[in-house]
Amino acid sequence: MQVIETLAEGLKREIKVVIPAKDMEQQMNERLAEAKDKVRINGFRPGKVPVSHLKKMYGKSIMAELVNEIIREKPSAILSERGEKSATQPEIAMTEDEKEAEKILTAQVDFEFTLSYEVIPAIELKPVDGIKVTREVVEVSEDEINEQILKIAESARTFETKKGKAANGDRVTMDYLGKVDGVPFDGGKDEDAELVLGSNRFIPGFEEQLVGVKAGDEKVITVTFPAEYPAANLAGKEATFDITVKDVAAPAAVEINDELATKLGLESVDKLKEVVRSQIESQYGNVTRQKVKRQILDQLDEIYKFEAPSKLVDAEFENIWRQINTDLAQSGKTFEDEDTTEEKAREEYRALAERRVRLGLVLSEIGEKAGVEVSEEEMQRALFAQLQQFPGQEKQILDFFRNTPGASASLRAPIFEEKVIDKLLADVTVTDKTVSKEELLADDEAEGEDKSAKKAAPKKKAAKAEDAAEGEEAAPKKKAAAKKKAAEGDAE
Asked: How far apart are CA 15 and CA 113, in angstroms?
């Protein structure tokens, strides 16, 4: 077998592979000899079938098997021998001429094919002890814990029917019917709907007009759906709602005590505070982690400058670009609305894609040299987390990961990356800094992996994921807003 390099330009490589016809024929004959004692052909005793007859009957099919095996196995062996790693699956090209293919299968001409690929550049790891990061830490106060508990307690709060007018904080039970231009619209009707005034569960202007109503009142209120409302047939439209008030109830007082803890499924108020403190610290810890990670990535970006494989950059750019255009379409905006142009946005997101690929290769090399591994248990936990996100679709998800080549890499990659960051955190200089929660959560446009592309990003997404369900029934409720966040509603 001859391996001839025909292109070495930057990271691009092209290899011509030639396997002489006599070598192909020899392998075919060896397989025919092995098959001689196994095949059963009418007119011949077992083991007595002439090889020439076998060749006539099965030669081409065996040669076709050999070609497929070579195409499947040789590329990785060739790259290994050359000490190269391909950034993507090498592209394989061979003759498409039927007459030429026929000659290959009959061992009349040499079998030739080419490999085209980009190599992963050699990365010389550099010391990281010069990297310095600031880890922002928030001290969780007793007041913040109590404030969070009171929010959680809203789910366990009781209401008592009252006489008189509804005020903010009261719960109104009502029937309503929504109309646009006097015609009822789908999803605009409900009976015995409960609404706590001031909760901002309904569209702007709805709740305010219920302040002062009392049981038995009938009222027509007028509101305007937001311009970015997910249901396109209602967005920006003025609507009326016929309201029949059935009950007005005042909230019972909430006290942070053992009784409240019991209602929330915990044995004591001390345990409740412990759980809430842990949740708050976990939330702040996640933000802190991301900020520290960004600092590390920014400094690695300055340390490592090399050409990234263009095919990997292309693939990453397409993923980013697809998401950006989806966000723009959902918000009904254009690049011009975001003070940029498509050309400028492409340039900026291309730079972002190149950075991500380059840093990904650096982290991969650091992790490989450090012996970082992802265990089977960690992969199983990641898969379980995926299944939890899509209840009812467990079988489809499992089938996807079992049957899709490379799918498991989408589970492994983020775990591997976080473990590499952990390794780096043990080696770099980390300085803790106590900050307020406002400072920690501040949206600093100068920070972050995507800072080079933020100008081109849509500033607002009209159809946020948390509001997506609204578009289906178009009720005035802001459903996602009505649900408690995980930290507020899951004290366990």
From this structure: 8
Q: In whole angstroms, what is the distance from residue 223 CA to residue 388 CA?
A: 38
Q: Spell out the alpha helix ranges (H) of 106-173.
A: 142-153
What is the location of CATH 3.30.70.1050 in the chain? 2-118
- Give the tens place of pLDDT for each residue, 317-358: 999 999 999 999 888 888 998 889 999 999 999 999 999 999
Q: In the CATH hierarchy, which top-level class contains the domain 158-253+465-492? A: alpha beta
267-461 belongs to which CATH class? mainly alpha
Q: What is the pLDDT of residues 150-176, one digit of tens each?
A: 888 877 788 999 999 999 999 999 999
Q: With respect to CATH, is domain 2-118 assigned 3.30.70.1050?
A: yes
Closest CA to 210 of 248, 183, 157: 248
Residues 201 and 481: beta-carbon distance below 8 Å: yes
- Helices 51-82 + 21-36 axis angle, to 10: 130
Cβ proximity of 152 and 488 under 8 Å: yes
Report which of 383, 378, 310 is spatially closest to residue 350, judged by C-alpha positions.
Answer: 310
How far apart CA 105 and CA 62 sit, in angstroms, is: 9
The answer to whether 401 and 383 are in contact (CB under 8 A) is: yes
Helix 409-427 and helix 342-370, axial crossing angle in degrees, nearest 10: 70
Residue type, 446: A
Residues 6+ apart with CB under 8 A from 68: none
- Please compute, for residue 482, the number of CA atoms within 13 A of its CA located in the half-sphere on the CB side: 16
| pTM for the whole structure | 0.69
The two most distant CA atoms of the chain are separated, in Å, by 106
Q: Given 3-state DSSP classes, what are the helix, strand and coil percentages for the chain, each rounded to the nearest 5?
A: 50, 20, 35
Distance of CA 328 to the CA centre of its chain: 18
Least confident of 123-137, 223-237, 455-469: 455-469
